[in-house]
Amino acid sequence: MFLHLLLLLPLFSRFIENGSSTVTSTYIRSEWPSVDIPLDNKEFAVPEGYNAPQQVHITQGDYDGKAVIISWVTFDEPGSSQVHYGLSEEKYDFTAEGTFTNYTFYTYKSGFIHQCLVGDLEYDRKYYYEVGQGDSSRKFWFVAPPKIDPDASYKFGIIGDLGQTFNSLSTLEHYMQSGGQTVLFVGDLSYADRYQYHDVGVRWDSWGRFIEKSGAYQPWIWSAGNHEIEYMPYMGEVIPFRSFLFRYPTPYRASKSSNPLWYAIRRASAHIIVLSSYSPFVKYTPQYKWLNEEFTRVDREKTPWLIVLMHVPIYNSNEAHFMEGESMRAVYEEWFVKYKVDVVFAGHVHAYERSYRISNIHYNVSSGDAYPVPDKSAPVYITVGDGGNQEGLAGRFKDPQPEYSAFRESSYGHSTLEIKNRTHALYHWNRNDDGKSVATDAFVLHNQFWGSNRRRRRKLNKSHLHSVVFRRPSSEQM
Ligand SMILES: [Fe+2]
Questions:
Q1: Angle formed by the axes of helices 166-176 and 198-215, nearest 10°
Q2: What contacts 24+ positions apart, CB below 8 Å, involve 131-135?
Q3: Which are the contacts of 85, defined by CB distance < 8 A and separation ≥ 6?
Q4: Which of 447, 426, 429 lies closest to 438, judged by CA?
Q5: What are phi and psi for residue 49, nearest 5 degrees?
Q6: Residue ranges covered by each domain of the chain
Q7: Whether 131 contacts 97, CB under 8 Å
Q8: What is the spatial order of strands in the sheet that 99-101 belongs to?
Q9: How many Å lie between the centroid of ligand 1 and the Cα of residue 348?
């Protein structure tokens, strides 16, 4: 059955990637009200014990996946910033020393935010770790990724605009059943900025406890959205991204970035570039110069899959946030096409949408050629801003559906990208209301470097054959 599906999917996917039909799903889901889960709900429960670590989460800590940054918060006193870890359960042979910090936001005083880099990991191994002290210590685990290899298989989840409602919980629980190994988060985390004064910090804390059930066990790769800006002059808070930057570290220095808001990592067979929609990005800015350099560091022979994350979608046919990504498109789209980015994931619009491979790099106002056209070198653009936050769904799409838009639906959910090898990946959008007899969006993504180039694949097949012949021990040749 699965084999049949695999055989059929390439045909289906070719249609999907290059086709011309457009789909606006008429599916209407039942949903919980768009209100945040009350603070006394068990989803936000504070772990028991004096100074017990809470809000535990991990992210990749280096360029190639041999390190993680482990973060947690304690409230009673700073306590220890050490992480004890090892390769077997409850046997922690190693210790890493971290640091702690805290911050204020109006009258809110954060807990002690601990961050500890755990490095020199062995690829493909399960690690057990412990944070906190005495009876209040807590134990978790994570799995180090496979080594950087062009055929390393790996399953990413993509979540955006999550918030902390019962719809958010449904998204998180569905994602946790998907088998995803790392979350690519496309911005707008807690929606704490929907609150005022002291409660902003309180809702960052509740969100940290909310996502711990996934975030403590696998890396979440962070990008920032508008809800992270928190420019709130009425209470004297005017430094952008303050709460986010204190709470959610990124390994930006490992990719030679000068700012935690934009950076890159390599994981398994993927090179992932994280951009900041709300930081300067035009020519001559640090983000622009860094991205220019980072694209030259991409080696598709080692990491065939080139993925870009940002918050504001470049192509979006929803009434909500229409054209907001146009300024970044004007600056970066040319590079996305030149470097054959496989897929660009964004959030911001609280709905799901996928584009065909299209570009608008020959945009010319004076000749009237100011619209996107099919382009085989262009990425697929996917908006996954449907995590389920308190602002509700963006239900009004532009009518008629533009030709570049392949599939769109206003429902909550998440996506997965399951990389199989250097040529193929299975992509799936998962509506939270699964189990219904309504098709969600799924297709095979062909790699832009390997999947579309027959000559390169033929060369690869030949060299594989050579290596098999020459490596075979003499005893086996008999
Ligand atoms: Fe947003």
A1: 20
A2: 131/53, 131/56, 131/70, 131/72, 131/82, 131/83, 131/84, 132/49, 132/51, 132/52, 132/53, 132/72, 132/74, 132/79, 132/80, 133/51, 133/79, 133/80, 134/50, 135/49, 135/50
A3: 92, 93, 94, 95, 96, 118, 127, 128, 129, 130
A4: 429
A5: 110, 155
A6: 148-468
A7: no
A8: 54-60, 68-74, 112-118, 99-101
A9: 4
Phi/psi at 184 (5° precision): -95, 110
Is it the case that residue 364 has pLDDT exceeding 80? no
Q: Does residue 321 carry a catalytic annotation?
A: yes
User: Smallest Cα–Cα separation from 209: which of 58, 72, 386, 388?
Assistant: 72
Of 378, 291, 314, residue with least CA distance to 342: 378
CB atoms within 10 A of CB 136: 17
CA gap 282, 344 in Å, rounded: 19
- State pLDDT tens for residues 148-188: 999 999 999 999 999 999 999 999 999 999 999 999 999 99
Whole-number Å distance, alpha carbon 385 to ligand 1 midpoint, is 8
Query: Per-residue pLDDT tens for 371-398?
Result: 899 999 999 999 999 999 999 999 999 9
pTM higher than 0.85 for the full model?
A: yes
Burial track 285-307 (b if 16+ CB lie within 10 A, e otherwise): eebbebbeebbeebebeebbbbb
Q: Distance from first CA to last CA of the chain, Å, rounded?
A: 38
**Residue 85 C-beta-side C-alpha neighbours within 13 Å:** 27
Task: Measure the CA–CA gap between 17 and 11, rounded to whole angstroms.
Answer: 10
Ion ligand 1: residues, Cβ under 5 Å: 188, 225-226, 348
Give the pLDDT score at 303: 98
Active-site position among 84, 311, 321, 424: 321
CA of 456 to the centre of ligand 1 (A): 40
CA of 389 to the centre of ligand 1 (A): 10
Per CATH, the number for 148-468 is 3.60.21.10
Backbone angles phi, psi at 336, to 5 degrees: -60, -40
Compute, in angstroms, the gap from residue 256 CA to the centroid of ligand 1: 27
**Cβ pair 401, 408 in contact under 8 A:** yes
In degrees and rounded to multiples of 5, residue 11 shows phi and psi of -60, -45
Q: How many CB atoms lie under 10 A from the CB of residue 88?
A: 10
Beta-strand relationship, 352-355 and 343-346: unpaired
Residue in this structure with the two tokens 């420019």, named with its chain if needed? 231
